[in-house]
């Protein structure tokens, strides 16, 4: 087995249209999300998880790799012919201000955000369809809330930063506790945040 791979770098901000378009393909988003959650995987494993042909998944893996969004991972089996992949960073971000200056960039940004929102909605719908199977503790813990605040842009920026920092604290705490051997009752938890101005 190969030497241990370095951990993916913590974060990356996408600022070029080519990479954003490569990332924003619906199947590539699913593949990338699956790698983030499941960890290092082969094309055949990913194909089973996203319900697509191995050849198609392999093609999209190569496209993601071309833009540095994923990278080869340490071999996880005795079969040296298998190619393993992992996300190249823990988190990706992309901001409207980096793409607003061209119609192509603005359209690509909007399209990717819409695809992400649709996939997040699908993820939540899956939970709703399966919530009885999760049991009472998880049903009580899960939340769907809506808040209304009167803020200016600086206050909204600060609010978002504070929420992100809080979630990161829990992420780090969960990783550390699990690394110490406390895995009892732990599951993947999705936390989705959308904050934006509106008028009526």
Automatic annotation (TrEMBL):
Q: Which Gene3D superfamilies match?
A: Winged helix-like DNA-binding domain superfamily/Winged helix DNA-binding domain
Domain of life of the organism in this record? Answer: Bacteria
Q: Where is the HTH arsR-type domain?
A: 18-97
Q: Which UniProt keywords apply?
A: DNA-binding, Transcription, Transcription regulation
Among InterPro entries, the record links this protein to: ArsR-like_HTH, HTH_ArsR_DNA-bd_dom, HTH_MetalResp_TranReg, WH-like_DNA-bd_sf, WH_DNA-bd_sf
Protein name according to UniProt = Helix-turn-helix domain-containing protein
């Amino acid at each position: 087995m190969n030497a241990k791979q370095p951990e993916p770098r913590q974060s990356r901000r996408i600022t070029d249209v080519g990479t954003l378009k490569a990332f924003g393909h619906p199947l590539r988003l699913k593949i990338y999300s699956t790698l983030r959650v499941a960890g290092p995987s082969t094309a055949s494993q990913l194909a089973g998880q996203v319900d697509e042909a191995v050849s198609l998944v392999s093609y999209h893996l190569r496209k993601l790799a071309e833009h540095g969004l994923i990278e080869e991972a340490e071999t996880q089996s005795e079969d040296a012919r298998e190619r393993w992949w992992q996300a190249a960073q823990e988190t990706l971000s992309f901001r409207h201000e980096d793409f607003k200056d061209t119609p192509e960039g603005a359209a690509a940004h909007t399209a990717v955000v819409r695809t992400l929102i649709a996939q997040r909605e699908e993820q939540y719908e899956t939970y709703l369809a399966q919530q009885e199977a999760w049991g009472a503790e998880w049903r009580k813990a899960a939340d769907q809330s809506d808040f209304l605040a009167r803020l200016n842009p600086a206050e909204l920026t600060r609010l978002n930063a504070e929420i992100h920092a809080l979630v990161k604290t829990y992420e780090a705490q969960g990783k550390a506790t699990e690394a110490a051997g406390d895995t009892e009752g732990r599951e993947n938890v999705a936390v989705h945040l959308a904050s934006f101005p509106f008028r009526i």
